[in-house]
Amino acid sequence: DQQVKQNSPSLSVQEGRISILNCDYTNSMFDYFLWYKKYPAEGPTFLISISSIKDKNEDGRFTVFLNKSAKHLSLHIVPSQPGDSAVYFCAASGSGNTPLVFGKGTRLSVIA
Amino acid sequence: KAGVTQTPRYLIKTRGQQVTLSCSPISGHRSVSWYQQTPGQGLQFLFEYFSETQRNKGNFPGRFSGRQFSNSRSEMNVSTLELGDSALYLCASSLEVRTGYGYTFGSGTRLTVV
Hints:
The structure holds 2 protein chains of 2 kinds.
Chain A: E1 4-5, E2 10-14, E3 19-25, E4 30-38, E5 45-51, E6 56-59, E7 62-67, E8 72-77, E9 86-94, E10 101-102, E11 106-111
Parallel strand pairs in A: 2-11
Antiparallel strand pairs in A: 1-3, 3-8, 4-5, 4-9, 6-7, 7-8, 9-10, 9-11
Chain B: E1 5-7, E2 10-13, E3 19-24, E4 31-38, E5 42-50, E6 53-57, E7 64-68, E8 74-78, E9 87-94, E10 104-105, E11 109-113
Parallel strand pairs in B: 2-11
Antiparallel strand pairs in B: 1-3, 3-8, 4-5, 4-9, 5-6, 7-8, 9-10, 9-11
């Protein structure tokens, strides 16, 4: 039973355009959501997060949107750059001592 | 400030053998979590330790075990290796079990079982 779903295994975007990565979750107890970025042969690195009390969080070119009623979040990257090409993982956590639950990842390719 | 260090980086083992992987967290971090990454499966949670105690355990068979030492370093062990255990094993550390900024991951240990 997958609690965090990233339904698009891959995404290709032209440099300078917007990249939108989507994530759905099923567990209504999740109250904190994070995005990680992973390059080959490296561990995932934290990118941006959002608490369930917010519906938007912005950090430079990266914005995360949360729609709690739809149990959906998305990561927007504007403008996309070739260096953004990586695998992006969506993760969620609930209250208490619960570990992060990750999606399967979306491979983003930004084409110059 | 040193990051999370995992050793070894690469490992090749034969079916039936056992293996021990090591993780040194960021200095001051007391929580260590282990994840398995396989193609198409994302990151699957193995276990989490905090102050030498296992706080959470994922849905893996008993062949997978771990421990944490008093200096917060952690090891995970896989006994009776199977071909399906081939994966990237990632360790992550954090100040506490649940932190607002998630985990800091190491570069992982790539285990290949032949």
